[in-house]
Design goal:
Layout lengths: L2 E4 L6 E4 L5 H24 L5 H30 L5 H40 L42 H24 L3 H31 L8 H33 L9 H26 L1
Antiparallel strand pairs: 1-2
Helix pairs in contact: 1-2, 3-6, 3-7, 4-5, 4-7, 5-6, 6-7
Length: 302
């Protein structure tokens, strides 16, 4: 049973959560997702279809969705019941801060891979640098970036064209930057207890995030169908889709979080003094925005 204990001065309290089944269920879901995804990729490599891997992946995703719904709903109920103290607020802030830091390291690894490939590996294959002897493998290979002609064009044909950064990518950049502004306005309105303004600006933020995802899908369709830019289009295609794809997943998650916060605002949750759930989503959305600016510069333009 949940309990609440008091300090010696009885001026502060700390919340001791009850035993929960959610962490165990989340671990099972993560295992099924990881195992299912690995099995699915192996099956696809062997051209044997999705098989059991796809089933396990979908089952894990379904369980994870139920876990997140139930777990977050439980936390919301506890928060609305006034069970959380300043100590719990600090715990949530530290937890969200470390989570975003882990996400920074996640994307830093992929940006690091892009840097390594562009500045070191590709020039080495072209005969440059201290490891330029690698050029002996493909002596006619010319090192350029973006890599339109791969060393082995038969196995990994390069893309036929590149995404124009000054159309859909630029539009998506404007959408995300605008959404960071609108969510900041909504946060300020919440601090001033102007709830209609919070609802308005948060709704606009959700719509901007949804528009970003729609244009991202349009860009992928163009890349695959018209430009030959796929995951198999050499190292450029792989890095392009890994970076933009994972970012798209984070935007999807962020937009979903914003929608949940919007529904909570409409139900009268949060106050000018206590609204860390709102703040946490704002932090995450700003992080997603900053990552996209890095992608726009280093993947599309430079």
């Amino acid at each position: 049973m949940s309990t609440q204990s008091h300090s010696s001065s009885e001026s502060q309290s700390y919340y001791v959560p009850s035993q929960s089944r959610w962490p165990l269920l989340a671990s099972i879901a993560l295992f099924l997702i990881a195992y299912g995804a690995g099995s699915l990729m192996n099956a696809m490599s062997a051209n044997s279809g999705g098989g059991v891997g796809l089933t396990l992946l979908l089952l894990g995703a379904l369980i994870m969705g139920l876990v997140l719904t139930g777990w977050f709903g439980h936390v919301i109920d506890e928060s609305q019941a006034g069970l959380y103290s300043d100590q719990m607020d600090r715990s949530f802030r530290w937890g969200m801060s470390w989570f975003i830091f882990s996400e920074v390291m996640f994307f830093a690894a992929f940006f690091g891979t892009l840097f390594y490939v562009r500045t070191l590996a590709v020039p080495w294959l072209g005969g440059e640098g201290e490891k330029g002897v690698s050029n002996m493998l493909w002596q006619n290979f010319e090192a350029t970036w973006p890599l339109m002609q791969t060393p082995d064009m038969e196995a990994f044909p390069g893309p036929e064209g590149l995404i124009d950064p000054w159309h859909l990518p630029l539009l998506n950049t404007l959408l995300l930057v605008s959404s960071s502004i609108t969510v900041t306005i909504a946060h300020k309105a919440l601090k001033q207890n102007r709830r209609p303004a919070v609802t308005l600006w948060l709704t606009i933020t959700v719509l901007l995030g949804a528009a970003f995802l729609v244009f991202q899908v349009m860009e992928y369709v163009e890349a695959y169908n018209e430009l030959g830019l796929t995951l198999q289009a050499g190292i450029y295609g792989a890095t392009f889709f890994i970076l933009t794809g994972f970012h798209g997943m984070h935007v999807t998650l962020g937009a979903f979080m914003l929608l949940i916060i919007l529904l909570r605002v409409m139900r009268g949750h949060f106050s000018p003094q206590s609204h860390f759930g709102f703040e946490a989503v704002c932090w995450y959305w700003h992080f997603v925005d900053v990552v996209w600016i890095g992608l726009f510069l280093f993947v599309y333009i430079l």
